């Protein structure tokens, strides 16, 4: 049977159909069955030869064996990414291969790998549907972050204007008003009044509605509530992506699965809600971003599905991303009261001299350094979005063929990288005031590398600065049941979230002065 598989490797459709049928059988028999183990070994034999990668001595690249049906899959990269980053690095070395479904991904861990692989990042191709399979293609496969080439240029032109650096500086007042309103709501709801705050759960919808206000303008209460109600439905859909299995395969489109039913319901609601949000915005101003974006659909430059999926990406997909950045900042400041007081002194000074709005735009402040340090120690995701270089290249001694997807191991680059020194595991924001942007360029992963960095990074930073500055100015944040060394090895995180979120509560006391 192995001989047949190798001989007929080009017949991808037949193999894909067979694998999909096997996936269905595995779903019935269980992931640890003898059938699953047997299929995994056969496919690993075939895949490791089909995608043979070696060094100058013809030694194959090390890596994880394929496990049917997801390979290592999204769960291993995202849900268990922190642990796997460490264990895979110890087992396989500085460069190795994992499997996303039946697609190979090369894991890059060192700055020199990044320099070589990303030297022409403007020509890179993002992995189809994030290497997450068919269901992901239906959910976000056409969004800005996952398309490439001419499609990317068209969608980028249609949607980027409100999020450019110049435009983002105009949102400081909007962001502050939303932040102030959210704190008042938290106090009235009882969480702040009781002296406790959940750094992930209590602030989850703040960045969501700020971005919504940027895109759609002021929201009518009924439309705001519909957006709020849709968020948990959308969150459930991504759990299907993370689980993988049958939904990875195109054959699943014909099956009456719960995932397909829930996706159909969500898409209907999302399309209708956007029609109503557009109509509401059109009554106010023709310059509202959603009106401007929709003109690209009317002209045929982008499709309606591309726009709707990109709006989904901006709001729902990035909901977890932004709150991950916010929440860990609060945890680290709570665990490091001396740094917290230094940041507060900086905030007080800028409020007193009338430069607070400019301060929220300042990337060279201690506040900004705290944000960078938090992201260094707690990357939003353990591994980056996979992408492929257009030409072959030698990385870490191995010849990587053109079109082979690679991911960056954020924990290896941000923490285990010798660039960060002997105190690399410690929280020391001042380190970011000691290095230039050029020095940091290939030693630090946050928003990506090159022109395909996160579109919303400028708005995200202003939101995080605004929230953190407001919190430390008005409240003293602390930790009762956790160590104060700032390393946080014992801090829990939400296990079923693909983005790294803390699972704990902080003490939050109003300042009396």
From TrEMBL:
Cofactor(s) the record lists: heme
An example Gene Ontology molecular-function term: heme binding
SUPFAM superfamilies to which the protein is assigned, alphabetical: Cytochrome P450 (SSF48264)
Listed transmembrane segments: 6-27
Entries under InterPro entries matching the protein: Cyt_P450, Cyt_P450_CS, Cyt_P450_E_grp-I, Cyt_P450_sf, Cytochrome_P450_monoxygenase
Gene Ontology BP annotations: secondary metabolite biosynthetic process
CDD domains hit by this protein: CYP_GliC-like
Gene3D superfamilies, alphabetized: Cytochrome P450
Keywords, comma-separated and alphabetical: Heme, Iron, Membrane, Metal-binding, Monooxygenase, Oxidoreductase, Transmembrane, Transmembrane helix
Ligand binding (heme): 454
Top-level taxon in the UniProt lineage: Eukaryota
A Pfam family reported for this protein in Swiss-Prot or TrEMBL: p450
Family of this protein: Belongs to the cytochrome P450 family.
PANTHER family noted in UniProt: CYTOCHROME P450 (PTHR24305), CYTOCHROME P450 MONOOXYGENASE APDB-RELATED (PTHR24305:SF235)
Name of this protein: Cytochrome P450
């Amino acid at each position: 049977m192995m001989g047949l598989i190798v001989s007929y490797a080009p017949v991808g459709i037949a193999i894909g159909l067979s694998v999909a049928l096997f996936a269905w059988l595995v779903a019935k028999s269980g992931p640890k069955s003898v059938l699953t183990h047997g299929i995994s070994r056969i496919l690993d034999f075939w895949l490791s030869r089909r995608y043979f990668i070696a060094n100058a001595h013809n030694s194959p690249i090390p890596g994880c064996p394929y496990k049917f049906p997801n390979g290592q899959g999204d769960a291993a990269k995202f849900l268990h990414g922190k642990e796997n980053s460490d264990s895979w690095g110890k087992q396989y070395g500085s460069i190795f291969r994992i499997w996303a479904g039946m697609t190979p991904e090369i894991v890059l861990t060192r700055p020199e790998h990044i320099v070589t692989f990303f030297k022409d990042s403007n020509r890179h191709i993002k992995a189809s549907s994030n290497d997450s399979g068919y269901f992901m293609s239906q959910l976000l496969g056409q969004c800005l972050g996952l398309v490439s080439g001419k499609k990317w240029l068209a969608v980028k032109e249609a949607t980027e204007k409100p999020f450019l650096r110049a435009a983002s500086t105009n949102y400081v007042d909007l962001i502050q008003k939303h932040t102030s309103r959210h704190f008042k709501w938290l106090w009235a709801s009882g969480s702040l009044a009781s002296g406790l705050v959940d750094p992930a759960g209590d602030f989850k919808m703040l960045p969501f509605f700020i971005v919504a206000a940027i895109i759609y303008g002021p929201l009518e209460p009924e439309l705001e509530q519909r957006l709020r109600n849709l968020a948990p439905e959308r969150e459930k859909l991504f759990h299907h992506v993370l689980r993988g299995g049958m939904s990875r395969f195109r054959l699943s489109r014909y099956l009456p699965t719960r995932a397909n039913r829930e996706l159909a319901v969500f898409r209907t609601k999302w399309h209708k809600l956007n029609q109503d949000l557009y109509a509401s915005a059109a009554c106010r101003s023709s310059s509202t971003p959603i009106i401007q974006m929709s003109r690209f659909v009317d002209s045929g430059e982008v499709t309606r599905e591309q726009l709707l999926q990109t709006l989904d990406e901006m709001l729902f997909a990035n909901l977890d991303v932004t709150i991950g950045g916010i929440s860990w900042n609060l945890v680290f400041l709570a665990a490091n009261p001396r740094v917290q007081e230094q940041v507060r002194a900086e905030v007080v000074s800028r409020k007193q001299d009338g430069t607070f709005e400019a301060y929220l735009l300042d990337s060279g402040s201690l506040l900004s350094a705290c944000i960078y340090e938090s992201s260094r120690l707690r990357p939003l995701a353990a591994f980056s979005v996979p992408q492929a270089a257009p030409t072959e290249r030698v990385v870490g001694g191995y010849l990587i063929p053109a079109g082979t997807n690679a991911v960056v191991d954020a924990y290896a680059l941000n923490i285990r990288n010798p660039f960060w020194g002997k105190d690399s595991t410690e929280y020391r924001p001042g380190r970011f005031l000691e290095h230039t942007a050029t020095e940091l360029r290939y030693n630090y992963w946050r928003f990506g590398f090159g022109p395909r960095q996160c579109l919303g990074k400028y708005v995200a930073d202003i939101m995080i600065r605004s929230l953190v500055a407001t919190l430390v100015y008005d409240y003293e944040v602390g930790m009762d049941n956790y160590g104060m060394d700032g390393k946080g090895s014992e801090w829990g995180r939400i296990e079923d979230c693909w983005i790294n979120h803390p699972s704990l509560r902080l003490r939050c006391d109003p300042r009396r002065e």
